[in-house]
Amino acid sequence: MAVLDDIAAERQRLTERLARVDAERQKLADQVAELDATERVLSRIMPTPAETSRRARRRRSAAATPSPAAPARRGRAARGSRKQPAKPAMPLGEASLRALEALGNEATAEQIREHLSSQFGMQVRPNHLGMALQRHRRAGRLEQRDGRWSMAQPASAENRG
């Protein structure tokens, strides 16, 4: 019967050890969840530097993939969803007016686009800038002559009559 007692004692020790390991695993899982939440908050607050090399992007994506030992997450898996791009600090329409004011009258659309890129950090497609400039032209804020844009001159009382 001593063998059965030894087996029961060993089983008890293993059960206690398993309980401690489970408690430690739960504690670590809670810490990982807290770190994930903190990382999400910080990623919203702090801008991420643009990574241009493929190697840096690959390294970052490899670090972001969860390990197989990580506990399964609950909830719906977002298939094919992408992170929404950050809203620009200023709308394109207003930024284009400010860029034209900074460049002075008689600026081309390409000069305005380069100014938006360098001064405001806005990467603007040419057709989107063209649509914004045309909206301002139709509203009477801008004029276009020979492919150059300028601020519209206010109509004087003599021109109206």
Structure description:
The model has no long low-confidence stretch (mean pLDDT 81). Helices cover 60% and strands 6% of the residues. It is rod-shaped. Among the domains are: 1-42; 92-152, Winged helix-like DNA-binding domain superfamily/Winged helix DNA-binding domain (Arc Repressor Mutant, subunit A). It has a 3-stranded antiparallel beta sheet. The protein contains 6 helices and 3 strands. With 161 residues, it is mainly alpha-helical.
Name the shape in a single word.
Answer: rod-shaped
- Order of SSEs: HHHEHHEEH
The CATH class designation of the domain at 92-152 is Mainly Alpha
Report, as a whole number of angstroms, the end-to-end distance.
119 Å
Q: What is the averaged pLDDT score?
A: 81
Q: Output the strand order for the largest sheet.
A: 1-3-2
Going by CATH, the homologous superfamily of the domain at 92-152 would be: Winged helix-like DNA-binding domain superfamily/Winged helix DNA-binding domain
Q: And the CATH topology of the domain at 92-152?
A: Arc Repressor Mutant, subunit A
Could you describe the largest sheet, including whether it forms a barrel? 3 strands, antiparallel
CATH architecture of the domain at 92-152: Orthogonal Bundle
What structural class do helix, strand and pairing data support?
Answer: mainly alpha
Number of strands: 3
Contiguous helical run count? 6
